[in-house]
């Protein structure tokens, strides 16, 4: 299954962002509107900085000395280090949604072309690999993470781990969650987006149907998965409302509907897939 996913997403990488742009835009809005709900102590945000800045920012500060301006509270404020692990990162949708509130983003994906797309977007934004970088890997393999030393070289733990649209592709989502949870610091948060349970795809109209192992995940299953992995503290799942339409498909595969109703195929085959966000925390 892993190999099927790898080769499918290698083929999709160059068109992935264009096909899924609507869903990604919507998810980014939903995630950024829920920063408090996610529950990570984020790196300083613009809002934090505002408190140390006056409207007359460009007016000389009274405490300016002959040696030059003293450091304003803003510039002296050390940035809290917040590390994000984006698993099944693809081109980096979850990373980009949360990057403004973190200091380092590490992506992992089984598809080397997805990883290349993630890294070229990071480079294009002028970010160094220390700030944002993805590597090829599989934490979800039954016989152990591939490569075996994945993430071992850097023993630092993460503040937040994400899996965006990945769980339904994994043979064993529970195992993947356990391996991710091990990489979280105490109090760290696992954040997932995926599909609520839905009927099977019409294979003729959805090129990626062979990569999907789970036709959505129920709240009970997701809750149990978080709890078993040790990240069940404060578990919450929200089904996102109108306007979320998965963009799977090919030439006409952009979702047009609301509440997860869209059209997956040439003949308007209806699809009903609702997207949820779930979060839970590792015991501190
Ligand atoms: C639907 S895409 C989601 C990409 C991205 N997270 C997003 O939100 O747009 C699923 C991703 O899971 C990756 N994937 C599938 N199986 C995987 C596995 N066992 N380990 C790591 N990545 C995997 C695929 O290569 C693909 O990039």
UniProtKB/TrEMBL annotation:
<protein>
    <submittedName>
        <fullName>S-adenosyl-L-methionine-dependent methyltransferase</fullName>
    </submittedName>
</protein>
<keyword id="KW-0489">Methyltransferase</keyword>
<keyword id="KW-0808">Transferase</keyword>
């Amino acid at each position: 299954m892993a190999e099927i996913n790898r080769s499918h997403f290698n083929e999709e990488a160059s068109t992935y962002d264009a096909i899924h742009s609507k869903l990604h835009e919507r998810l980014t809005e939903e995630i950024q509107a829920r920063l408090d709900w996610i529950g990570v102590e984020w790196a300083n945000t613009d809002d934090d900085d505002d408190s140390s800045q006056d409207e007359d920012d460009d007016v000389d500060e009274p405490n300016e000395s002959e040696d030059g301006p003293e450091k304003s509270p803003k510039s002296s404020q050390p940035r809290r280090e917040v590390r994000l692990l984006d698993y099944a990162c693809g081109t980096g949708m979850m990373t980009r949604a949360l990057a403004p509130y973190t200091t380092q983003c590490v992506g992992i994906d089984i598809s080397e072309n997805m990883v290349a797309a993630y890294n070229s977007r990071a480079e294009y934004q002028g970010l160094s690999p220390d700030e944002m970088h993805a590597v090829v890997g599989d934490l979800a393999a039954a016989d152990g993470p591939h490569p075996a030393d994945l993430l071992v070289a850097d023993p630092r733990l993460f503040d937040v781990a994400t899996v965006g649209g990945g769980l339904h592709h994994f043979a064993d989502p529970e195992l993947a969650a356990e391996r991710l949870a091990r990489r979280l610091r105490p109090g760290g948060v696992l954040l997932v987006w995926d599909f609520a349970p839905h009927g099977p795809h019409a294979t003729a109209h959805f090129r990626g149907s062979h990569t999907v192992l789970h036709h959505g995940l129920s709240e009970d299953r997701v809750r149990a998965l978080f709890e078993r992995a040790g990240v069940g503290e404060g578990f919450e799942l929200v089904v996102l409302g109108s306007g979320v339409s998965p963009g799977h498909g090919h030439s006409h595969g952009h979702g047009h509907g609301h509440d997860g109703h869209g059209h997956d195929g040439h003949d308007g085959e209806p699809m009903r897939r609702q997207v949820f966000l779930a979060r839970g925390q590792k015991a501190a």
